[in-house]
Amino acid sequence: MVDLVPLSRSAAYELLLRSEDDHISDLDFLDWEDEAAVTRLTRAGFLPAPPDVIVRAGSVAGWAYALEEFSSFTGNHLDALSERGRAFCVHRNAKGFSSVDYAVHGETVTSFEPGLPHLTNGIPAEEALGFVPGDDEVADVAFLQFLERELDICLPWEETEAELPAAAFA
Q1: Distances from the Cα of 124 to the Cαs of 102, 127, 128, 151, 163, in angstroms?
Q2: How does pLDDT run across 100-125, given as a tens digit for each residue?
Q3: Is 7 within 8 Å of 54 (Cβ atoms)?
Q4: Confidence of residue 76 (pLDDT cuts 50, 70, 90)
């Protein structure tokens, strides 16, 4: 059983970037004298050591989503997440490379880097999803616009910053 704690994006960043030696009073989002809050964060695995991964989750317009910073933990579970339908994992690393994984009913259909079809594993994105990036578009942005236009999946920026149920993973 995973304990969930509501965290904003900035709070998740603070937790991920801290050292185990840092005092909890350094966390801007936390009143370190609030024993109940400290206990909740400790019981859920966010303290005293920083977790390896924090996954914040929510839903919008009938789609569930998970947000992670610095990792792609949920991408490792995409097949399981798609058991009862479809699941996408859109990941962008710090160097600007992006990848998209798409699974349906428990099986990965395709894994590709938008705009780089020679790096596709599985069915080409054009065939699996009907996605073809334009020549003058930033490929991962084009894919997110495709999701919004074709599948009505839109995650407003405010939602990505908001306080959402979060889980810590080692």
Answers
A1: 11, 5, 6, 18, 36
A2: 999 999 999 999 988 888 889 999 99
A3: yes
A4: confident
Tokens of residue 6, six digits: 């509501």
Count of Cβ atoms closer than 10 Å to residue 74 Cβ: 21
Record the tokens describing residue 92, joined without a space: 């962008």
Instruction: Decide if 87 contacts 102 (C-beta within 8 A).
Output: yes
Distance CA 32, CA 14 (A): 14
Q: Residue 159: which of 53, 57, 89, 13 has the closest Cα?
A: 57
Sign of the C-alpha dihedral, residues 31, 37, 38, 42? negative
The DSSP code sequence of 8-46 is -HHHHHHHHH--TTS-GGG-TT--TT-HHHHHHHHHTT-
Structure-token pair, residue 59? 């839903």
